[in-house]
Amino acid sequence: MTRTARRTRRTLQTAVAGATALLALSACSSSDDSSSASDSPGTASPSDELSGTVTVFAAASLKESFTTLGKEFEKAHPGTKVTFSFGGSDSLAASIPGGAPADVFASASPKTMKIVTDAGDATGTPATFVRNQLEIATLPGNPDKISSLKDLTDSGLKVVLCDKEVPCGAAAQKSLDAAGLKLTPVSYEQDVKSALTKVELKEADAAVVYKTDVHAAGGKVEGVDFPESADAINDYPIAQLKDTQNADAAKAFIALVQSSEGQKVLTGAGFLKP
Amino acid sequence: MTELDKTGAAAGAPRGGPRRRRIRGRRGVPLPLLVPALLGLAFLIVPLVALLVRAPWRSLPELLTSAEVWQALQLSLVCATAATAVSLVIGVPLAWLLARVEFRGRGLVRALVTLPLVLPPVVGGVALLMALGRNGIVGKSLDDWFGITLPFTTAGVVIAEAFVAMPFLVISVEGTLRAADPRFEEAAATLGASRFTAFRRVTLPLIAPGVAAGAVLAWARALGEFGATITFAGNFPGRTQTMPLAVYLALQSDPEAAIALSLVLLTVSVAVLAGLRDRWMTAG
Amino acid sequence: MTDTRDTAPGPRSDGRAEGLDARLVVGRGAFRLDVALTVAPGEVVALLGPNGAGKTTALRALAGLTPLTAGHLRLDGQALEPTPPESRPVGVVFQDYLLFPHLTALDNVAFGPRCQGSAKAEARAQASEWLGRLGLADHAGAKPRKLSGGQAQRVALARALATRPRLLLLDEPLAALDARTRLEVRSQLRRHLAEFEAVAVLVTHDPLDAMVLADRLVVVEDGRVVQEGAPSHIARHPRTDYIAQLVGLNLFRGTADGHTVRLDAGPCVTTTEDLSGPVFVAFPPNAVTLHRERPAGASARNLWHCEIAGLETHGDQIRADLTGELPLAADLTTVAAAELDLRPGAAVWATVKATQTHAYPV
C-alpha cells in the first residue's frame, strides 16, 4: 500500500512537472506570436512558415500524451491543426500502405513500424522516442495479493492477456518465456485497452498491460511491477511518411515529440525515456 | 470509376441491346430504376469479388486445414445456432406480445427492443458486462447464488450474439404477426383453444415463414458478430474465439490468413443461407 | 355440456328456460348495440340488417369475442358472461370460414375435439364422422386452399358442429360464395340447420338467405331491433322503409314439375326454371301487378284472386298485404293505388310474370 501511495505521489509530482513544462511551452509560443506580430527578428522558431493540417497515426497507448502535445503544437504554430487517429499499431500500419492519409506514424513496436518501412512508405529511419514497460494491472487495493508474474498462474485467478498478434501480447509472452512460466488466461484481448477494461470492470482479476495504461486508468486499477518486464521493453518508433502533404509540419511535430518538453509530457504519462 | 463505367454500359444495353432481354424483363425495366439497381448490386458484389481476387489461393489449403480454423468455424456455427435458438425461445413470444397485446408504453418497448440494432456492438458488449458480468447488476447475483459467471465462456458468446441478433428476429416476426389475420386466433378460441394453444397450434404455423426468415437473419447476424462478443466473452481459442474474432486478429499480423478465414465464413454462410432459402422461405 | 334435448322441450321442471336468452349491449364510441334475443332450441334465427347495423358485433358478443358493456347472456339457463370464448359451448362459422390453412380438412374439424381434451385418434375419428355426415369424406386429406367455396363452407360447418355446441353462430354463411354455388350450398345448409337440435343464430344482409334459412327474422338497424317475426309476416308487414325494401320478397315452398310449381299453399306458379321436386319460389313485391277486373289475355298465367288485408305507405310506395288464394305482398305506387281505388277488404286480381319469378331447389 505504501508503495502505491508513494508511487502516486511521485506520479503527481511528474504530472505537475509536466504541466509546468507545458505552461512554459505555451508562454514561449505566445512570445513567439507577439514577436512575429511585431516583426522582430531573433527567434529561431519555424512557426512562421508552418500551416495546414498534420495527420498523426499513433498507437492507442499514446492517446493522452499525444493529444496534449497536439494542442501545444497548435498553440506554438498558429494556423496549424493536428488531427490524430489512435488505434492498434497493427491496424494503423496495415492502413498506411493502403493509402491512409497520414503524415506521421508513431507505432508501439518496431515490428509494426517495419510493415510501413518495408512498404517504402516512411521517409528516413524511424526514431525510437519512448519505451514502454509492462506492468500487472490488478483490482484496486490488489485484493488477490498479486506481487509477481508467477502469482498470475494461480488457477483461481482470471487473468487476461493481449493477443499474441498485438504488441502488448507479444511482450507479455516474452516476459513469461523469460520467467519460464506457463499462463493460461481466460481471454486473449484484441488490444491493451480491452484488456485493461476487463480489470476496470472487475471481470478479470488481473491483466498484463503497459505502465502507461495503468497510469491512464487512474485509481480504477492498481499497478504491480515485475522484474521480467525488463526483458520485454517495447520501443516506440516514430517516422515521417513519404506521402505527406505537409512535410515541414510533420518534421516539426516529430521534433516536438523528441524535445525535452515532449519527453516530459510522455514520461509524465508513464513512458520510459529511450 | 471503372465500376461506374461498367454499370453505365450495362444500363445502356436494354435500349440498344438484343430484344430478347427486354422480353425477359416482361415490360422493360425503366432506366431510373435499372441504373441505381445495378449500381447497388455492384456496390455489394465488388468488395466480395475483390476478396476472391486477392485471396491467397496457393496457401489456402494449408491455411484452411489448420486445427485452429476448424475450431473457430465450429464454435461460430454452434454459437450462432444456439443464439438463434435462444432468440426463438424468447424472441417469438416477445414479438407476439408486441403485436397482439395492447399495453401502455408499447411504442417505447418496441423502440427499446430495436435498440441493439443501432447500438455499436462494442457498447452492447460493455452493457452486457455491466448487466451479466461478474460484477454486473444481475451477474453478481448469478455468481453469488449459483457460482455462474458468463464472461469468458462459450455461453457468454451465445448471449452476446443473441443480444445483437434477437432484434432482427423480433422485428421480422412482429411484422409477420401484424400481417397475419388475428381472427384465426379467434376462430381457434371458439373451438375451445386457450390463447396459448391457439398461438402454438394456429398462429405459429401460420407465421412460420416469417419466423424462419427472422431466424435466418438472426443466425446470419450472430455468425458475423464481433464487437459484443469480444467485449463480453473475450477471445480464447476453442472457447470464445469465433471466426470473426479469428479474422480480426489474423488481420493484425497476417492479412492473407484473414482473407482466407473470411472466405471460409463467406462460403459456409452462403451455403447455409441458400440451403435454408430453398427449403423454407420459398415455401411461405 | 350435457345434451338437454332429450328432456321435455320448453321450460324444464326446475323452471329454467332452455335455449338462448340474451340482451346484448355493446357500446363502442358513438355506436351502441342493444339487442334482445330469445331463441328456443331447434330454432334458427336470422339477424338481418344493413352493413354496419351491428349484426356481427352481436354475433361476436354471443361468442365472447367482444365483451358485453351491459345486458345479460344465458344459454340453457346458464350465465355465459364470465365465460371466456374457449369455454363457451358455442360454435362459429365465420364469414370467410377461417379454416386453418396449414391443416387438412380433417385436422381442421378435429381441432375442436382436440382442444376439448380428446386424444388425437379419437378426435380424428369424430372429425371423420362429421365430414362424412356433410358429404366431405373424400376431401378429408385436402388442405383448405384445395377446397371449393362450397366445400370450405361445409368444412367450416363441420368444424363448428364437431365441438357439439349448444349455440351455433353463422356469420354471413353464404356471402363468400359465387351465385351458382350459393344456391346449392344454401339448400344444403338449410337441411343441416334443420337437423341441428340446439340454438342457431345466423347473421346476414341478404333477405333471401335469411328467409330460406331461418324460422324467425330479427331485423337490426343502427344497433337496435326494429322488427322481428316469421319471414312471411315481416315481408307483408314491414315496419320500416328499410325492411320494406330489404324484405320485399314473396317466398313459397312447392313441388316443381317442369316449369310449373304447385305451391304448398294451393295454387300453381309458372316459372322460367325447369326443375322437379321440392323447390322454393320467390319474387319481389314490385313484380306483382294488381287489377280490379280479371285481366284478359293469357300472357300472365300466374293469376290469383286475392283480397286486400292491409295497406302500408313507405315513401312513395304502398305495400299491399293480400290474402285469398295466395298470401302475397305487392308494391305499387300511390298513384296506381288511387286509380285502383284500393282499400282493405277490396277484391283484386294479382298477376306475376314468369320471368320475374325465381325458383330453386330446397
Q: How would you characterize the overall build of this protein?
A:
The complex is a heterotrimer of chains A (274), B (284) and C (362). In chain A, 42% of the residues lie in helices and 21% in strands. Chain A has nine helices and ten strands. With 274 residues, chain A is of the alpha/beta class. Chain A has two domains: 2-33 and 53-131 and 236-268, Periplasmic binding protein-like II (D-Maltodextrin-Binding Protein, domain 2); 134-232, 3-Layer(aba) Sandwich (D-Maltodextrin-Binding Protein, domain 2), CATH 3.40.190. Chain B has two domains: 2-53, no CATH class; 60-281, MetI-like (MetI-like fold). Chain B is built from 15 helices and no strands. Chain C folds into two domains: 4-246, Rossmann fold (3-Layer(aba) Sandwich), CATH 3.40.50; 250-361, Beta Barrel (OB fold (Dihydrolipoamide Acetyltransferase, E2P)), CATH 2.40.50. Chain C has 362 residues and is of the alpha+beta class. Chain C has a six-stranded mixed sheet with strand order 6-7-8-3-9-10, sandwiched between helices. In chain C, strands 13-17-14-15-16 form a five-stranded antiparallel sheet. A four-stranded antiparallel sheet of chain C has the order 2-1-4-5, with helices on one face. Chains in contact: A-B, B-C. Chain A binds chain B through residues 88, 90-91, 94, 158, 160, 163, 165-166, 185-190, 194, 197-198, 201-204, and chain B through 126, 129-130, 133-135, 151-152, 230-231, 233-237, 240-241, 245, 248-253, 255.
